[in-house]
Amino acid sequence: MKVIKLFSIILLLVLILPLVNATIDSSSLTSSIYNLGDKILVEGTVTSVKDIRTNLDLFLDCGSQNVQVTTTLLNLKADQPSQFSNLITLPTTIFGRCSLMANLVDLDGNSIESKNIGSFELSNKLKTGFEINKKGFQLGDTLIVKGSVLKQSGLVADGVLVLSFRQDKKVILIDTIEVIHGLVDYKKVLTKITPGNYFVDVLVKDNFGNFVSFDGLFNFVIDSNLNVNTVLDKNFYSPGDSLNLNGYVSSNLNNQLRNINLDFDFDDIIRNAKLSSNAETFSVNYIISEKIKSGSHSIGVVAYDDDGNYAAKAIEFNVQPIPTVLSLDLVSSSYDPEQSVEFTVFLYDQAGDEISESVNVDLLNNKGKVVSSKAVRTGVLNSFILPKAAIPGLWKVVVSGLGLGSEVAFNVREYKKLDANIQGTNLVVENTGNVPYKGLLDIKGNELVKSKNINLKVGDKDEIKLDKLFSPGFYNFTIPFIGKYFDSVSIPKSKSLFSSNKITGNVAKNVSSTGRKTMLFAVLIVLCCGILYLLFIAKKNRANKIKVNSSQDDYLLAQKKLDELRTRGIRKDSPKTEYGKATQEDVEDWKRRLQQSIREHEKMNSHNEFVRHQQSSNNKDKPSGGLFNMFN
Predict the structure, then answer these.
(1) What is the pLDDT of residues 192-205, one digit of tens each?
(2) Which of 138, 159, 163 is nearest to 216 (CA)?
(3) Fold type of domain 2-123
């Protein structure tokens, strides 16, 4: 990216400055990789189309860094090649992929020509080769390390060699020698050195900062001719147990050893033993502390004699954890119903260190009854969900296991909460809190606010008939206490089943699709029954009308005959058998039947008047668009 930006700047300068043509020719680089501080010979010529005095700058472009390495002043003659030769030294501060750039600029700093002479890898690594004389040594032997140190170009390097002798991660000895003309010849007499396994870390540096390092390049064993052979009475111990260590001392060459001293280190408590010869055995007892940490421990054993032989050994033993303390930690001390009661169980061993086991945890309500139980892992966050109707008061979380137990109390707060839903034109209110609810509940329909006194036990429901509180229309209902909203709720007009206020349509807006279909089907059945009933009444009315007319005609004819009889002066004692004349008994009988006919007539007229009024009312309420217009 830097090269692209540089070329862009050069191109811009070429476009805005007077054009001066020049060419740079150079020899190729002799290698594709160099070390820090290496010298590179750069030769070539510069040719210009006119006379000009310039500087030839050589710089390194190494990605994020650019370093100028030399500048050569050139007096160029037109069309005459001017030679240059520069022995440049590569910097010691950067490394990576680099390009050697030649930039021809005039004395005012204007760029005339630029050229990439070549790209190479600038490395800070050296090439080496080492060998050791053997893998095992006795005290008094000589350790020899030979090798060579070269640069990437193959040239020899001068510098220093650092050898670090370590056991595991512990450095025992650090030694250095000078590297001359790339040769390494190191010798070390191994006397008074702790025996055991050794690793040698090697570091080589030259004078320019190039280096190479190896972790554990060599490994070898130094033997001090003593072996300590030990055995423990068992593999695992509990705090407070007695540990018994037995063993003997021998040499690799089975030599006879005398006056052997043994030091035993039990967690910084030193015990000593002395053997007159290696034919004897030793036995050491140690009482493990009751508060010792669980896990792996080691016993350090050192053996040495009067001749200077020496040995050291670490004997490992394990201590099992003993659960000692079981505790419980709640995230909070107060909760509402349906909240998550988060808790963590902690189990500690004899040393106060946390250990992981499975234990049982119970959730108890304020009456001491177990509401929920679960097995949990110690040290892990867990939780109980409080019941919806959790009784207010002090509840407990109780943990038990491994012969230990603990409990923590927390408070379940009083929680007043209602829930509500619309079913048809009813507002169904449910007490979802944990205490009874008694009081006024505000219901806001559009801008109108109504209140309803409710008294609900925990879990009880009540229906509030909205059509009794609000007049017909469409409402957006809000229940402020609950925070619920119900949009576009229809309150229909309170009319008869056969009224034309589109009952089914309004009801259907407030019920689910399944309830709507059921309601429409029921209304259809009622309408059909009503139609059949009206047809039956109409038919009966026609029959009654005919009967009434017939009764009226009979009444008029009888009245006419009675008047004629009165006019003629009919006597009461007229014989019944006289042809064409009514007797007194005939008159009385006729009056009786006539009065009965008049009463039946009046009764029928009253019934017909009711039927006509009902028909008139039905005709007014009948949908104008047809029988099924109410479903539109």
Answers:
(1) 788 889 999 999 99
(2) 163
(3) Immunoglobulin-like (2.60.40)
